[in-house]
Amino acid sequence: GERADKKQKHWQSVAVAACEQCGGNRVPPVAPVQDIAAWLKALPPVDPQAPALRCLLSLADGSMPLRSALGNLPATAPVYFLSGPEGGLSAAEEALAAAHGFMPVTLGPRVLRAETAALAALLLALHL
Q1: Which pLDDT tens digit goes with each residue over 103-127?
Q2: How many CB atoms lie within 10 A of CB 67?
Q3: 33-60: per-residue pLDDT in tens?
Q4: Which of 78, 69, 77, 75 is nearest to 106 (CA)?
Q5: 82: nearest Cα among 67, 109, 104, 99
Q6: What residues have CB less than 8 Å from 26, skipping those under 6 apart?
Q7: What span, in angstroms and rounded, lies between the C-alpha atoms of 50 and 45?
Q8: Structure letter (DSSP) for residue 43
Q9: Burial class (CB in 10 A: 0-12, 13-18, 19+), 112
Q10: H/E element holding 54?
Q11: DSSP string of 56-112?
């Protein structure tokens, strides 16, 4: 409702201010709030002919190191990151993400804050 609209406008202005501060020439859009099921459904379908990687930042046992997941991906391939809130996504949310082609990946043995984990994943992807 109105509260969600105000928050979206606030975060869009934060994105503008951040770009002004760092000299960025492309302001990322801040999308309206939606639940995870709606967001996953709105993603483009997985295309076996066009390589893309969908990564779920996860603390679950058996998660692949992100560096390994990114290793053989062409430089121009899109990469999607799904990072949950503090404490991570619920088991049901992780299962839903997996059903939409997301692979659980880890950033290493340390547990990072939610905002730090997302930035660390982006930096790692940019420097491979």
Answers
A1: 999 998 888 898 889 888 888 887 7
A2: 15
A3: 889 999 999 998 888 788 789 999 998 8
A4: 69
A5: 104
A6: 19
A7: 11
A8: S
A9: middle
A10: strand 53-57
A11: EE--STTPEEHHHHHTTS-TTS-EEEE--STT---HHHHHHHHHTTPEEEE--SSPP
